[in-house]
């Protein structure tokens, strides 16, 4: 088991290192000179050369990469060429907003999808199961941004229950924080819940046809108790895989939602940095997003060993 964990951690570190090289290389091949962009089109060649020397842009690319990745490892993402401000506080503040929204959205999506997907499987040949399946199909077809706009029109502009935009940190007041969290979290969660409901339904249906579940019922367990005691854990394995992928998708989908609700998350910072051609900030934000996605994959792999004894025995 320990060897399994160590191999997965080493794979994570190796993949993150390769990803850092790719991210750095992609930023270098983009057209334009970072120092020229920072100073403006009217800057003299001497001023551009001075700024390049100040930020180390005149050094070999290998040296620039090693300097950047060495700082990233210790949490120092450098100083913006455009604003001359430290990038680390920008990323640390924005990532908190994004993670709060994404984690809350996935938690709500699972709270909706697991019972509805299980019910859709148990009652798959009845009206209730068909209705749940139909509703999930409609939910899958609705983009996140459209769901966000509909929620704002109904619950903010129409009923006036929640603010339509803005953000408050929890330390600024838990009530205002929750008010501004409800709509973006719901917009992300509803679409993800529809997707996960389909996978939960398929996984539970497959488990219900397995021999071990029939054996459990033959020993005297009711259908519901046999499913809860022996079926749901087996059905959770493919659902965990999909949930990990969808959680990574939420990180990307949060970019649009943050724009709709004017949230100061990583998506908003990434859009701002791209529009300003603040390439070092873009590089740092993209690297953080890549590491988060890889970390999610690592967590999913480790959860396999918890849910499936065969993985532990193989390890």
TrEMBL record:
The source's superkingdom equals Bacteria
Q: Where is the ABC transmembrane type-1 domain?
A: 95-304
Q: Name one Pfam family in it.
A: BPD_transp_1
Listed InterPro entries: BPD_transp_1_N, MetI-like, MetI-like_sf
- Tell me the compartments it is located in: Cell membrane
> What keyword terms does UniProt attach to this protein?
Cell membrane, Membrane, Transmembrane, Transmembrane helix, Transport
**Membrane topology, record value:** Multi-pass membrane protein
The transmembrane residues are: 12-30, 99-123, 135-161, 181-200, 235-262, 282-304
Q: Which family does it belong to?
A: Belongs to the binding-protein-dependent transport system permease family.
The name of this protein is: ABC transporter permease
Q: Which organism is it from?
A: Brevibacterium pityocampae
Organism lineage reads as: Bacteria, Bacillati, Actinomycetota, Actinomycetes, Micrococcales
């Amino acid at each position: 088991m320990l060897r399994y964990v160590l191999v997965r951690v080493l794979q994570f570190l190796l993949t993150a290192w390769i990803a850092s090289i790719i991210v750095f290389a992609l930023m270098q091949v983009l057209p334009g000179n970072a120092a020229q962009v920072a100073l403006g089109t009217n800057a003299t060649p001497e001023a551009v050369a001075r700024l390049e020397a100040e930020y180390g842009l005149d050094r070999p690319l290998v040296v620039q990469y090693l300097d950047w990745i060495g700082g990233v490892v210790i949490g120092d993402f450098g100083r913006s060429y455009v604003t001359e401000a430290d990038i680390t506080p920008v990323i640390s503040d924005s990532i908190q907003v994004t993670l709060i929204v994404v984690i809350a959205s996935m938690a709500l999506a699972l709270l909706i999808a697991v019972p509805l997907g299980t019910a859709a499987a148990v009652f798959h040949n009845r009206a209730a199961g068909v209705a749940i399946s139909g509703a999930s199909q409609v939910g899958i077809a609705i983009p996140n941004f459209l769901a966000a706009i509909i929620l704002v029109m109904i619950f903010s502009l129409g009923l006036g229950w929640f603010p339509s935009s803005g953000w408050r940190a929890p330390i600024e007041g838990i009530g205002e924080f929750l008010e501004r969290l409800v709509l973006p979290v719901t917009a992300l969660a509803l679409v993800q819940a529809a997707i996960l409901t389909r996978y939960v339904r398929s996984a539970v249906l497959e488990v219900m046809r397995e021999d071990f579940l029939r054996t459990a019922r033959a020993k005297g367990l009711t259908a519901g108790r046999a499913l809860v005691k022996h079926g749901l854990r087996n059905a959770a394995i493919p659902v965990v895989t999909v949930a990990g992928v969808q959680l990574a998708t939420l990180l990307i989908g949060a970019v649009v939602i943050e724009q709709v609700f004017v949230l100061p998350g990583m998506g908003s910072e990434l859009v701002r940095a791209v529009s300003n051609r603040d390439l070092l900030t873009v590089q740092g934000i993209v690297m953080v997003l890549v590491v988060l996605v890889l970390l999610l994959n690592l967590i999913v792999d480790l959860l396999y060993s918890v849910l499936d004894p065969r993985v532990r025995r193989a390890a």
